[in-house]
Structure formats: structure tokens, C-alpha cells
Amino acid sequence: MSKKLHPIKFQPIFKEKIWGGNKLETVLEKKTNASSVGESWEISAVEDAISIVANGPLKGESLQSLLKEYTSNLIGNKNYETFGNKFPLLIKFIDAKEDLSIQLHPNNELALERHNSFGKTEMWYVMQAEKEANLIVGFNQEVTSEKYLKHLQNKTLPEILNFDKVKTGDTYFIDVGRVHAIGAGVMLAEIQQTSDITYRVYDWDRVDANGKSRDLHNDLAIDAIGFNMKDDFRVSYSKIKNEVNKLVSCLYFTTNYLPIQNNNIQKFNTFDSFIIYICVEGEATINASGFIETIKKGETILIPAAIKLFEIKAKKAELLEVYI
């Protein structure tokens, strides 16, 4: 007989990166012995990086096996019809000690045709930023493919890119085709389609410990870049306490900002979807189906679609609420 679904936490999957730091350990209190950890994958169905349940009766089960067993009870009817046994979102925390490469992601059509994968629409919520830290998002002028290729060839690509200084709470929507990079000194939460397809176009001419530079994907990237995209990547949003504030809504996910202060919030899941909560500040307790789980800053929890009624309680917490 199937075990009862409950609010699910997963074991983080750590990714060492040439640009990674130690904030996931020191600030978010993740337990890892690895050095230069750039990413903590919180909920993942990417092949070779499938999340394992860390709590409750389902502890030790993989996300993949849960999906096969609980189907629409886990992710919702509509989602199960669309995605089947493939969990549609990837949730990460990212710590950039150094600049990430300048990159972009292909859309669904290109990703399917070339990599048999989803595209990679994503969003960022900045959790911490050093004083002069920035992000690169889009271009700072009108750019054609010819102009772009000339700058790429001359290693002057940064001259035509848009640098944005950032602070905690800043939010960005990174549509497919948009050139972007996370700058040194930024730690953020990332919500994205389940995909690990990245086209790296410029890596600051750096090399690893063996003197080897990382692969670039310029032949693939040129067809995938959106040269005429709107300058709509910066997200402005309200921050009303004890209320759901809309952040980003797109075809692939909806994300809200929920700041709670000295309150118990009753939640009714009317979305026909799982709901994910990412704690970006403070600590909150979730009471659902007789199970009580606490999430603190740097933790993520999944509420299965079958759980329709639950309560979130906090003295002070800031949560991102994600569903499809």
C-alpha cells in the first residue's frame, strides 16, 4: 500500500564549480565537505542528479519513483498529462564567488531537436550580494548578429552587455535566448525548467587548475540568441506582509513572494499543481496532513498536489511560492 503523501524535503545535490564559493555552507548552513560549491540542487529530476527524499515516511525514495507511484497526486492532473513521469522544474541555490560565464539557454524547440531536452526558461531571486556585485542581463544597445560576432571575435563582448548592480530581493526573469551571467559576490535562488542545457559564449579567458579552458558553444548559440528581446527582465513587485505578492508568471512556472510576520496563514491549494516553498529568509513551520515540517533560510519543501489544505506559521519568514 502506498505511504501517505506529506510535505517533502530533499537532500541537496552539490555541484562544484570553477567559480563557486563557500556561502552555501557558511550562510545557508548546507553540510558539504566539497570546496568551491557553486550550486545546491534542491529539487531535481535531471538525469544523473535525481533528488532523494530527506524526511518523513518517504525518506530515501527518489523523486522519479515518487512520480511513478503517485503520478497526478504528486504533481497535479494537468501537469501529469503534460509532463508524465518527468518532474518539470529544477530548483537551485547558486553562490558565485567569481563571475559565471556569459551564456544563454535554447528554447523548447531547439532543445528538443538538438538535445532531446526541455528549454531553460528561468528566474533569479537575489538572496545576498556583496557591495559592488552585479548581474549581466541582455545588451546595453541595439545588437545585430554581425555586431555580436565581431565583439565575440575581438574578445570585447562585455562592452555591449548590460550590467545591473544588485541587492537582496532583486528579481530577474531570464527568458530563453537572453544573454546573461551571474556576477561575483551574488548568491541567489534559481527557479527553472528541468534542463541542464547551457550555451557558454564567453568565459573571461579563464583556465582551470590544469590550464584547460572550458568548452564554448558559439556555433549552437548564434541561432538561439534573442537579439531583439524586450528590456523586461527586471521584476518589480509588492512586498505586503502576510499576503501573496506576485513575482513572475510564465507558461512554465508561477512564483510569488510571501513575507510572513507573526502569523498563521491557511493555504488552500486550488492550482491543480504541487507547490514548492523556498525559504529565502527566517524560518517557517508547515502543518499539512498531520505532518509538521520546519523550513529555514536555504531550505526548500514540496507540497504534493493531493494536499489541498495546510497551514504556514512564522514569527518572521520570507518564502518564494512556486507552482505551475
Task: Show the helix and strand layout.
Layout: E1 13-21, H1 23-26, E2 37-43, E3 45-46, E4 49-50, H2 63-75, H3 77-83, E5 89-96, E6 102-104, H4 108-115, E7 122-129, E8 134-139, H5 145-153, E9 161-165, E10 171-174, E11 180-182, E12 186-193, E13 199-202, H6 218-224, E14 234-235, E15 245-249, E16 254-268, E17 275-288, E18 291-296, E19 300-303, E20 309-323
Antiparallel strand pairs: 1-2, 2-5, 3-4, 5-12, 6-13, 7-10, 7-12, 8-9, 8-11, 10-14, 15-16, 16-20, 17-18, 17-19, 17-20
Helix pairs in contact: 2-3
Tally the helices. Answer: 6
Mean pLDDT: 95
As laid out across the biggest beta sheet, the strand order is 1-2-5-12-7-10-14
Structural class of the helix and strand makeup? Answer: mainly beta
Q: Roughly how many Å is the radius of gyration?
A: 20 Å
CATH fold node name of the largest domain: Jelly Rolls
Q: Sheet with the most strands?
A: 7 strands, antiparallel
* Amount of helix: 10-25%
Structure summary, number of beta strands: 20
CATH homologous superfamily descriptor of the largest domain: Jelly Rolls
In the predicted model, the low-confidence regions spanning at least 5 consecutive residues are none
Percentage of residues in strands: 35-45%
CATH domain class name of the largest domain: Mainly Beta
The ordered string of helix (H) and strand (E) elements is: EHEEEHHEEHEEHEEEEEHEEEEEEE
Number of domains: 2
Termini separation comes to: 29 Å
**What is the CATH architecture descriptor of the largest domain?**
Sandwich
Backbone shape: globular
